[in-house]
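Morning!

This is the sequence you dropped in the shared folder:
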Amino acid sequence: MKMPAVIEAFFAADHQNGQNVLQSLFTPQAVVSDERTSHLGTDAITSWWMAAKEKYRHSTKPLDAEKRDGEHVVRGEVTGQFPGSPIVLTYRFRLDGDKIATLEIG
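The structure's back. Tokens below.
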């Protein structure tokens, strides 16, 4: 499964609780949409990530990846402390150069 390096780094940070790495992966005005809420900018994205990690204690294992309509689409198995674990979620990344500009999770 081939993914751009920045997306591989995102999932690697997920496994290492690497909130310190997150800000280097996203553009300054990046947007993450998850659980019907959008988070704008690297500070908000880091806060979202840390809160989700604390709440769900989750990790994601990428299952497959493809590029479709300008997006990098990754399906991942998410395991954690929540009802129905594990579940499969879709991560839709749009990149700006070698940084993540948008990420939609659902």
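Headline: The beta strands are 26-34, 37-40, 59-68, 71-79, 87-96, 99-105.

More detail when I'm at my desk.
O.
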